[in-house]
Design goal:
With about 750 residues, the protein is of the alpha+beta class. The strands form six sheets. Strands 3, 4, 5, 6, 7 and 8 form a six-stranded mixed beta sheet that branches. Helix 8 crosses helix 18 and helix 9 (about 150-165) packs parallel to helix 11. The chain starts with 7 loop residues before the first strand and ends in a 7-residue tail after the last strand.
Length: about 750
């Protein structure tokens, strides 16, 4: 921020300087491919505002000052932070340096962005001391500013990182103070949040400017050692790769080198010379699954002898910042100690980016905590500690130990320990293991006993998730899941599946409508130049950006397939292509004379894009028709449904003919009204009759009236078709005390 590198007021920047600023912003926008176009435009607006606000200011390096906020935003983009965070990064010096007010930012960019900028400004006003007795108090003040929103400290860390990268342009007299502050305050925060890449960089940059001579000496020594040990490292790499190939394990093997600062600290702490630091080099082994981490470790232990006491399992018990890996130090050729780290790709992302990695799971709901799950818990736990103790030294000690007092520790069936937030449910656990496990979860066992998916977890629970390949998330889960990751994954899956299913339905409906007009959909080759032109005209006519969007809109009922088909036929006519009269007559003259296109077949696999009306509950064998609600997809009614008839009278063009496939792939729910003579065990006998007829009971309603001589029982039952329903009714009628059975009729005023 500006306190580190105060801007200087100068004349207007040169064209070259302005071009440099524009080029750096172009580099930023190239990293925003994970954002929606509207969000990118919001970031662009913030850039234009910041560029104008900082006009006439340059950094000590001679570059336009705006290059600094852009660089901070670029780092935030590397972490995949949201648009609000990037806007705040671009505007983070606007209040302090440019006279911009918080109300002005609220008016232009919204309250959330203004609050982030305001929080960053308050952070900058803190005075940090490096003396031991004041470190904790300074840290405590910083917590108050960032606890409400972890993005504040992430932007601050990005800001400090860029300032450290350009510290060489600052007067040398300031190097020691800024570097010490970075080592004492910012690097530890980066480490606690799991931002290991940033943590290592801040340490090395601080070391470089705090002890320039030691840094250069050590860098030269490392360069020489690298040359001497090149053959050893190459040999180790070849032997390790061969061992994994022989074991049939696919791995990503990469060499890693201790940072200069970590080497320096080891020499200082253990009073070693550089030659005595033997574990400078190491390898990172990334495998495809958690199990393979342990298998890979076994392969390595067979290749080289492990160094006793140097094995650490951070997978079974992760570090408090979420870091997971297996660490083992092996004795390689010529007695060289080499550390190996085994982890999965997902662990690697968290190991390098920590809490910032959670923005990959950010939910569409702005209130969701998906992106702050890990960091917010850590910050909140520190705030709890500071409320309990006012002793700075004691507080500093608490910072260094387990900071998840509100966590619940549970186990997988393979005894892997996992920390979950208190109140987390079985579904949260399933998504914590893997999103595919969460998506496919159908049941669960806790300590060997089957429990509902909404059951809360308790310390020591052993949880087994039961999955099914055809299962998918239930929207009702959003009502009880606790973790942001689970919430965002469920929402994303439901939204994606709804769009895919709507597109597939739209494709079927358009093909059916085109056949009714005498055009086979296959004739419209999308790679044909003439037909490509027709599709472009259709998209202009409908206002859609792509064919996918058009088909999705048809499936959602936002566009009428018959109208689009008629437009296509007209355009084909202009191009000299005529409809197929035989196809047209075959499709037009169907039993559904009131509908202008042929019947669409349903088999129950259509998903969320097709809803079966709750008023009439159609099942295979019923005559059916479909209503295209605006943006609601296709709603299926029975053809004698009074609700459907009312809609058809008002909105006939939104109805399409439907028919059942010969082999439906699932059961369908319908309703039965069973009138019984009141008596003991009647409900049980009726339920037994339903079970004997192989029907699942989905709902039972006995009403709220006091029991009379005759009582109505209303059942929701899942059946295969009308034949199955008929056999079900016969089975119930044979039950003693049953007076009458009938299928529930639609309510007229539904």
């Amino acid at each position: 921020m500006s306190a580190l590198l105060p801007p200087k007021l100068v004349k207007q920047p040169t064209p070259a300087a302005a071009n440099a600023a524009r080029a750096s912003f172009a580099a930023l926008t190239a990293k925003l491919d994970y954002m929606a176009s509207d969000d990118v435009e919001s970031v662009r607006r913030a850039y234009r505002f910041a560029d104008e606000a900082h006009l006439g200011q340059i950094r000590n390096s001679g570059e336009p000052y705006i290059t600094h906020p852009i660089a901070v935003a670029q780092q935030c983009a590397e972490w995949k932070l949201d648009a609000q965070a990037l806007m705040a990064a671009l505007l983070h010096d606007a209040i302090e340096d440019c006279g911009v007010t918080k109300p002005e930012l609220i008016e232009r960019f919204g309250t959330a962005v203004a609050e982030l900028v305001d929080g960053l400004t308050k952070l900058e006003k803190l005075e940090f001391n490096t003396r031991e007795e004041n470190q904790a108090e300074s840290f405590r003040k910083m917590l108050l500013a960032m606890a409400r929103d972890v993005r504040v400290i992430l932007i601050k860390l990005a800001d400090r990182t860029h300032n450290m990268r350009t510290l060489g342009d600052v007067p040398r007299i300031k190097w020691a103070r800024i570097s010490r502050e970075t080592l004492d305050i910012y690097a530890p925060i980066a480490h606690r949040l799991g931002l290991n890449t940033t943590y290592r960089e801040l340490q090395d940059l601080s070391f470089r400017h705090l002890h320039p001579w030691r840094y250069e000496t050590l860098a030269k020594a490392l360069l020489r050692a690298r040359g001497r040990r090149r053959d050893v490292i190459k040999r180790v790499q070849e032997e390790v790769e061969t061992s994994f190939e022989d074991a049939g394990i696919d791995v990503q093997l990469s060499g890693r080198e201790k940072t200069l600062y970590s080497i320096y600290r080891k020499m200082e702490d253990k009073k070693l010379s550089f030659a005595q630091v033997t574990d400078i080099y190491g390898f990172r082994v990334i495998v495809n699954s958690l199990t393979l981490c342990y298998t890979a470790m076994g392969v390595l232990h067979q290749l080289y002898k492990p160094l006793p006491g140097r094995f650490k399992d951070y997978i079974a018990i992760p570090k408090i910042n979420g870091y997971q890996s297996l660490h083992t130090t092996l004795i390689g050729p010529f007695g060289t100690n080499i550390e190996f780290q085994m982890r999965t790709e997902a662990m690697h992302v968290v190991a390098e980016s920590g809490v910032a990695a959670h923005w990959l799971y950010k939910a569409t709901d702005p209130k969701s905590d998906a992106s702050q799950h890990l960091g917010t818990q850590w910050l909140q736990s520190l705030l709890d500690i500071q409320n309990e103790t006012r002793d700075a030294a004691e507080f500093w000690d608490h910072v260094k130990i387990d900071l998840f007092p509100e966590a619940v520790y549970v186990f997988t069936p393979k005894s892997q320990i996992m920390a979950m937030p208190r109140g987390a449910t079985v579904v949260d656990f399933a998504y914590a293991i893997h999103s595919d496990i969460g998506h496919r979860a159908v049941a669960a066992k806790v300590n060997g006993e089957q429990v509902p998916l909404r059951s809360e977890l308790h310390n020591g629970d052993v949880i087994e998730i039961i999955t099914a390949p055809v299962s998918s998330p239930n929207p009702g889960w959003l009502g009880f899941v606790r973790t942001g990751k689970a919430r965002s994954k469920i929402r994303h899956h439901l939204k994606t599946m709804a769009l895919v299913e709507s597109q597939e339905l739209g494709e079927k409906m358009l093909a059916q409508a085109l056949r009714a007009e005498g055009i086979d959909r296959q004739r419209l080759a999308e790679d044909d130049e003439a037909h490509q032109l027709i599709w472009e005209k259709i998209l202009r006519f409908s206002g859609n950006r792509s064919r996918t969007d058009l088909l999705t809109d048809i499936g959602l009922g936002k566009r009428i397939a018959s109208m689009v088909a008629k437009r296509i036929v007209a355009l084909l006519g202009e191009a000299g292509e005529k409809p197929d009269a035989l196809l047209m007559s075959r499709e037009r003259f169907t039993s559904h004379e009131s509908v202008s296109q042929g019947a669409l077949l349903l088999d129950g696999s259509e998903g969320a894009s097709v809803q079966f009306a709750s008023c009439c509950k159609p099942i295979p064998g019923d005559g059916i028709l479909g209503y295209l609600g605006r943006g609601e997809g296709l709603v299926v009614h029975t053809d004698d449904c009074t609700v459907a008839k009312r809609h058809q009278h008002r909105d006939s063009e939104r109805f399409i003919a439907l028919d059942w496939s010969d082999e439906p792939v699932r059961t369908f729910e319908t309703a039965l009204v069973v009138t019984v003579s009141n008596g003991k065990g009647v409900l049980a006998r009726v339920a037994a009759a339903l079970a004997s007829a192989e029907a699942d009971i989905t709902h039972v309603n006995m009403g709220h009236e006091r029991a009379q001589d005759a009582t109505e029982l209303r059942f929701g039952v899942a059946v295969r078709d009308r034949v199955h329903l008929a056999s079900l009714i016969r089975a119930i009628k044979r039950t003693p005390a049953v007076l009458r059975v009938q299928r529930a009729k639609p309510v007229v005023n539904a």
